[in-house]
From TrEMBL:
The active site is at H698 (proton donor). Zn(2+) 1 binds at H645, C647, E669, C730. GO terms for biological process: methionine biosynthetic process; methylation. Zn(2+) binds at H645, C647, E669, C730. It comes from the Bacteria. Belongs to the vitamin-B12 independent methionine synthase family. The lineage of its organism: Bacteria, Bacillati, Bacillota, Bacilli, Bacillales. L-methionine binds at I435, G436, S437, E488, D603. Its EC number is 2.1.1.14. One of its GO terms (molecular function) is 5-methyltetrahydropteroyltriglutamate-homocysteine S-methyltransferase activity. It comes from Alkalicoccobacillus porphyridii. This is 5-methyltetrahydropteroyltriglutamate--homocysteine methyltransferase. Keywords: Amino-acid biosynthesis, Metal-binding, Methionine biosynthesis, Methyltransferase, Repeat, Transferase, Zinc.
Amino acid sequence: MPKVRSSNIGYPRIGEKREWKKSLEQFWAGNISEQDLLESLKSIRLTNIKKQTEAGIDLVPVGDFSFYDQVLDTAVSFGLVPDRFDYNGGKVDVTTYFAIARGTDSAVAAEMTKWYNTNYHYIVPEISTPPTSLVHNRVLELFNEAKEELGTKTKPVIIGPVSFVKLSKNLTGQSEQELVRSFIPLYATLLKELEEADADWVQIEEPFLNGQVSNEDLDLLQEVYAQLDVAAPSLNILLQTYFEAIDDYEAVVNLPVQGLGLDFVHDEGVSLEQVKKFGFPTGKVLAAGIIDGRNIWRADLKEVKDIVDQLSVIVGEGQLILQPSCSLLHVPVTVELETELPELLKEGIAFADEKLQELVALTKVANDEQDEESLEKSSAAVKALNESSSRNNEEVRSVLATISEEIPTRTIDAPERLRIQQEKYQLPLLPTTTIGSFPQTKEVRQQRLKWRKGELNSEDYEKFIRDEIDKWIKIQEELDLDVLVHGEFERTDMVEFFGEKLAGFQFTKFGWVQSYGSRCVKPPIIYGDVAFVKPMTVKETAYAQRQTKRPVKGMLTGPVTIFNWSFPRTDIPEGQVVNQIALALRKEVEELEREEIGVIQVDEPAIREGLPLKPSKTKAYLDQSVGAFRLSTNTVQTQTQIHTHMCYSDFEAIIESIDALDADVISIETSRSHGELISAFEDFTYNKGIGLGVYDIHSPRVPAQEEIDRNISRALSVLDPKLFWINPDCGLKTRKEKETVEALRVMVNAAKEARKQY
Ligand code: GLN
Ligand code: ZN
């Protein structure tokens, strides 16, 4: 038995060129049969396993691959199908599986929400009655498939019962503990069958352990794993955690399992300290997550080797496994395809395949199969990148050094500012506006693509954009909206657009990661000091403003959202990177002010999702985020009205931080939690402008005026009508022109009606 083994927690399912996405979408469009879909997904799945085995990984996962989402896979294995879908027991078929994820004409899809603090979204299981049987041992099937087709003995991976229940909506009326208990016999069957199929290891994931954990949770874990351990005595359970170090090290290492997976990358050396301080139980396996599974930087393998050496002394011979810190689902597949990246950067990054190579190299060195000198190359690449001039922009650093001490504050309080701004703009009571984007029609996308490919010259492209702006300014005036927008026709994605214009960002060609369902995103890489280069939004915004007497809102993506939706550098503190972005945006704000744009919206939809898993870290994150936002926006003139916008999550928990942003006006998406959000404002005196979205933009449906009336009066039962704005939930870029205009017309009518009553 080798001293050290290598393992992987999960591999990206999308394929090198998003073959997975293409197959799914072809199937949904009715262009390929179910048989074709099954075959093409099987081929991707087996290719992934083969790639990992050939790379030299000892424990290759199965069950990480999915048709949509791993949480949904777990739910259907237990026959957990929400009541509104047709289901009569047994293995859930492909049609029903996708119906739960995507909805049908007659049944709404299950809710989707963020997977911990990542940008991956899972399907939230709805448990109305406790499950009674394992209807499909999916991992067993996949384990057998890999064995038969490839001759590989893989490591099945599943989500553990405690985390699974915590991730679900418990509609049973039972307590969380009771519900977890009803899963134990089902998991026991699953494990027993894996044992009979001769599996050695099963990875059971309990990522809730990386957040807030109570004593009851720890007792429950003890109870659950004691029973699972006896259910399949010769199958080894590896209890896997990720994204942070765990707070309850001593309790967790002593659980009745054969191995424990910990994150040694995040949380600044905490896991290593814990192992050194408390030791590690003899006879147990430690799966050490030593390569960052969430970010794309190449590791300095000599430094990592040092951690491996320290662990080897403490963990028993043959009991140490090296692996990524979490599933590689969160990073792109391979750097190989990135033929256009600057050499220095290309050498400095590692996607999934390269991360596996790093693990194999470390394992070989640890087993004396390869000498330590072979790790030198990675250290040199990391050093070269760190020392490059792109990473170190003296000017940015020196400006940052002068301001980072103090967060700017607007000179006058919000109520007085609003009074001064109102004198200037003379807006009616309950002013109406939209969130920024108007429909990105096929034509808009085609013209942009042509221009990007060089088939359309910049002059013609800009003319096209101006025509779109003209058209929509007219529409907005005709609708009688109060604060207009230019429509964001020139933008692809709200982060990419800015990243392409700021210094310090780099874009990949195939660096896709799954965000939800078949939707993949290509996060930019923040590799160097971020700096303003030249105005980014002024041309279109100022043009739009010249076409109308009504105020046109400038539209920027905020520093926290740009940071959270990128792969940020890690060689300097996170706060510094966010502040660099904030300072660059401040310059853009100043440019807009110079062009007489007096209303500027800085969108922060992603502020909530970056909230750390551990409550002990919440304050630092929120302070940093609020600070960055204020750095960009709080030095404006009193007359300049700063708006912000948030969506995608529940905001009750961070309402004080929202207040501290000190934006003059905020618009928040509320269609998913109307009642809850409003009651949050009941106990909180919010003295700034606020618009709670009055209709849901996610569906093409044109809302009835009564619906909007109801939403307005519900909000105004709590909020001051003098501060209330009327706007849709979010941007309208995914909608069609006709439905957009109709819906906005209903909204403006509702506002006019409401004005008579308040
Ligand atoms: N201004 C952006 C838009 O309207 C906001 C998008 C978002 O909140 N996600 O599209
Ligand atoms: Zn939004």
